[in-house]
Design a protein that fits this description.
Chain lengths: 168, 169
């Protein structure tokens, strides 16, 4: 009986728009139960209609939220799948390349050299040739430098510039 | 507010918006959807959007105006409407008789109310908005919202008790 009295008191406040949202929820929950009081029975259809409409909205909101989170998860997975696919493709391309590992590839005198030791010895031979050429070049440049000094001596402007800088 | 943020806000609100707009039309889905779309476009174009703290209240406010404009337009053009098309108004007493299968529908109760009272009941009893939120949506004071709700609920009580007496007799 206490519950019924409480509900009737709440109902009076409800029709005067004095109830809070929590109190209105208490009323809706009560009318979802098996109401036996004749006076209260009259209000059951109205409160049940309100509850049904509210439940419909909550259901749709829940569906929308689920779709959004599923879409986000899918896009997250898709991103990582695409990264993994790109890495796999790169690895595959590397593996199917015929030339790999530590074999040296060298072309000497228009001929491909695949043998490692032969390639190194050929390379050494070429480097020594280059060094000797460089040595000759150094000697040549030394001679050129000498000629440069003679040129300086002969040029009046250059000798004046030198004299001025020497006195600084 | 960026377009992405706007889309997120609107997506979350959409079920409520559709439900609200559906209360204004009989044939439901497509017309309610159109009204919601119109409200969303107006919201996006609104200069207040960047400063607004409560986009939900603003959206509902715009939608309410769209729905009421729609009803005024339809009322003024009743003769040109499809005879199968019905809108719920408080001056249509035949609604409950013609649509007996919808007597348990919420619209059969709310159809007896003036528009502002109907909107107040929807916002409070179905959507669960607080008084201050309803006041913002309706563009009125909290005191006026309580008055609207009180009058609406008492009219509903009269209808319920009258139905109850009819069943007993």
């Amino acid at each position: 009986m206490e519950k019924i009295d409480e509900v009737k008191a709440l109902l009076e406040r409800y029709f005067n728009a004095e109830t809070t949202l929590k109190e209105e929820q208490i009323l809706r929950d009560y009318f979802r139960t098996d109401v036996k009081d004749e006076e209260l029975l009259a209000y059951k259809p109205l409160f049940n209609c309100f509850s049904d409409e509210a439940d419909k909205i909550k259901e749709l909101e829940h569906i929308d939220t689920s779709i959004q989170s599923t879409t986000l998860k899918r896009s997250f997975h898709f991103r990582w799948i695409s990264v993994a696919a790109a890495a796999a493709l790169a690895l595959f391309t590397y593996l199917i390349m015929p030339e790999r590992g530590d074999s040296l590839k060298m072309m000497i005198d228009g001929v491909n050299v695949y043998n490692k030791e032969l390639a190194i010895s050929k390379a050494d031979g070429q480097m020594s040739n280059i060094n000797s050429m460089m040595g000759k070049f150094k000697n040549s440049t030394a001679q050129l430098e000498g000629m440069g000094k003679v040129g300086d001596a002969l040029s009046p402007l250059r000798s004046m510039g030198k004299a001025m800088t020497q006195n600084d | 507010m960026t377009p992405q943020e706007f889309n997120i806000v609107v997506s979350k609100l959409r079920p409520r918006l559709i439900n609200f707009a559906s209360g204004f039309v009989k044939d439901g889905a497509s017309t309610a959807d159109d009204m919601v779309q119109e409200a969303i476009i107006k919201l996006w174009k609104s200069n207040e959007l960047q400063e607004i703290r409560n986009p939900e209240a603003l959206t509902m406010h715009i939608l309410k105006n769209v729905c009421l404009d729609y009803l005024k337009l339809k009322k003024n053009n009743m003769d040109s409407l499809n005879p199968n098309f019905h809108i719920y108004t408080d001056s249509d007493p035949l609604v409950a008789v013609e649509h007996k299968d919808e007597l348990c529908s919420i619209n059969s109760y709310l159809s007896i109310l003036p528009h502002d009272q109907m909107i107040a009941v929807r916002l409070r009893d179905i959507m669960g908005y607080e008084m201050d939120e309803i006041a913002k949506i309706l563009g009125t004071s909290e005191g006026n919202v309580r008055t609207l709700l009180s009058r609406a609920r008492q009219r509903l009580r009269e209808k319920l008790l009258a139905n109850g007496k009819d069943r007993r007799s």
